[in-house]
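Summary for the steering committee. The consortium agreed at its last meeting that each partner would contribute one worked example illustrating the joint modelling workflow. Our contribution is presented below. We chose a case with several input lines so that the handling of multiple components could be demonstrated. No manual editing was applied between input and output; the record is shown as generated.
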Amino acid sequence: MSAHDLFKRELTRRQVLRTCLCGLGVSAAMPAFFGKAARALAAEAADNDRILVVLELSGGNDGLNTLAPYGDDAYYRHRPTIGIKRERLRKIDQHFGFSAGMAGFERLFKDGRLAIVHGCGYDNPSFSHFTSMAYWHTAAPNSGEEYGWVGRLADGLKPGGTPSFIVNIDETQSLAVRSRDHTPVVFDDPSKFSRRAFFQEKPVFEHVADADGDTNPSQKYLLNVARSARDTSALVRDAWAHYRTPIDYGIVPLDLPKIAALIEARMPTRLYYTAFRHNAFDTHVHQADLHGRLLTYWRASCATWSGSGAPIRWC
Amino acid sequence: MTRRVKWGCLAALGALGLAALTPHARGLAAAERTVRGAGPAAWAEDLSPIGPDDWSYDRAAHLLERAGFGGTPEEIERLAGMTPDAAVRRLVDYGTVDNGHLAPFEHSGVHDAGLEPFPPSRPAATDLARKTGEALGVKVKPQGNRRLQPVADKFFYWLRASRLETNRAAYWWANRMLATNRPLEEKMALFWHGHFATNEDKVRDYRKMLLQLDLFYRHGTGNFRDLLIGVARDPAMLAFLDAGVNVKGAPNENFAREIMELFTMGVGNYSEADIREAARAFTGWNFVDLTFVVNREQHDDGEKTVLGHTGRFDGVDMIDIILERPVTADFIAGKIYRYFVRQELPPGLRARLGGVLRDNRYAIAPLLRTLFLSKDFYSRASWGTRIKSPVELAVSTYRKLGLREIPGVPDFNEVTSSLGQQLFRPPTVAGWAQGRSWITPGLLLERGNFARDVLFPDIAFIPPDRYPSDERIREVSDKIAQGLDITSATMGGRADGEMAMSNKMADRDEDFNTRYASFRGWQMAIERVKPIPRHTAQLALTAIVRSEGLQTTAQVVDYFLMRFLRVPLAPDDRQRLIDFLGAELGTDRVEVAETYLEEPLRVLLHLIMSTPEYELG
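What follows is the complete predicted structure of the assembly.
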């Protein structure tokens, strides 16, 4: 069976995907694959309070080794060295199995709480690491699209923009959240997301000028960011300071605890975006060990949320 | 001299009609006579030169901000006093400008010949030692426990020492940016560093980073062909792009891909086949210590077909083929434009800029002269729209404060790294993203925090080159000092002396202990590496106010706004600052508050440097 056939098989999963994404109204913002299922649900999504958390496995993760098609000879033929032996896989059916480090994910799938879309890609993939990443962030290959898919999603849900709608936890802003109407709240360490200021300076820092006819575009951008920083930094810092959890996120918590803290503090954010730092999955050699280890971190971190009893669906 | 006598002398000088105007007032008077602010919008995309009538203090400030790191009013006035043509030539044709006051880098002496060639990993080093009885210039102990420990120690020593020395090299470079008489030389070096990006984390040799910087100094505004060939043969670049594994029969595409994709043409101007063939042309290109070598046996000298040409090409031939493509000149000229002028570059203008580079056979200086003299450069679209990178922000802040030395508190590398840019450590071979990528809500607040740390040094500052931030290293250090055996000392967890003593198993039998080597490596490194001087910023803002003859809070605010900002504040914001200063001083007259003026001035400056407008140049 060719890879193309594999992909056709996976189309039956679209049912599960639709359920998973139905609350968010993924409309014209998403690639065509999602568009049909989601367009009808856009209006409903704008009013409910579901939250989307996106964790990017930067570098990137090798999907065929995360959920390996052990039932397909072609997999082992094409991957004589890095193919995972079927005995080591956590099987979800006669054809696919999770990488050994992903304990618990097969349970989530069988309970109907996990959707998987296998074999995402596009024709004639670019071999440039940087171009490929840009395509993943915009979900619009070969298009010159300047906004990210999460950014376009936000613009679709809330045209004109809503403050604090997107939160991106990272050192720099991801292209994925770049938006026409929204200023994403971007920070790294919530306890450091603050201005160190003297008491008497605070009234001055309250004011951020509005743009007028003389404001140049860069200046306008900076004023918007300043406003977002002023409005959100105290909220974020307090949310983090007050967050208490008995959950063990494992040795590499990623940024999920920070997101949990904000959700618990009832931040009005609906779209959260974070990633493994520094292209952790980017290897040219020795993929097996590193990817195996990174997937266990991911699993440990996410497992806490799935065990928490909250109504979470995974995709 | 009492204050009254001092002011009296100034008045007398004024009466004598000598140059009693304060330096700022002189400059201001000149500016009143000529042009303020940006040129008309219609100047956009016009590459023809401005004339002497278009020149002013404000235009000179814009030029110095872009072609360098900004300057004090005195420095700007010097440029403003020349014709625009002479000012641009002074900046671009810096070869004859004396820079003798700058000292060469003072090595700490951390390197020795035994370290070459440095093994790719700790396991490789210890395996080599096991096999041959020696590695890194250190022999294996004939008998006893941990016979390979000295080898492991030396491995980590070099990693730490090179890292610390790289931080010193960053300080040396930053000091050059601050004190040089050739600002464009440094700014171009910084530009090329971001373009031909290598990271010491992977290169693992501070000497190679300095060698590469020297390459940028030598060819930065020279000829791009010389620069590109130099980079392709540069040990730092060869190490960074895995040239060592690019050999006949197994060409590694990394080098060839980055040369075409990032350094010369950009995606879409070559095929995958071109990359595979080009990789063959560069096989065997390697380095030994700090010298470029070509390993003849590993060089594939067969026939290659690349970009429509066929022949037995080597690396230099490849470069010439690439340079022949029109897109290369467009790509490079376009990138230079987006760095110095503005991000938005219409295709037509890009092609014209490429034409300038091509017409000058890849000589870079003529392009720069054209850009810096062009109406487009002074048009509204290019004026006060450029967001400074972290390094530029720090250096220009220090320059505008009139400092002659980069302060040791705050630590320059810690500052720029927390803002997203560390010299000699670009995140990937694509360098830094530039422009709005530098600014997020978190980072914007952090930029204001940097200003505060300069004006009000942290009394609890810990020098990062004297204090390992890794807690485990500190733990091992403490436990070794307490007399624990190596196994107990490196066990981790919260084992204190008591618990270890009850653990009668004690010292394990092993070839070496990695954690101990990590600690010992750090210790050996800080023994050798010279400490970075920890002076705070030597500021005297009161003296500036005095010498400028500023008398009211409004004048003080306006002066500092003029000195530090390139874009005016909204009138409300300006007034708020004046009211703030008045409240802090308890008066709006400087003369009354002179004896306690320093602290309020610093708070005022913190407010100014925290404005969004301060990020623009």
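Chain A touches chain B through 47 residues (CB under 8 Å). Confidence is low (pLDDT under 50) at residues 1-41 of chain A.
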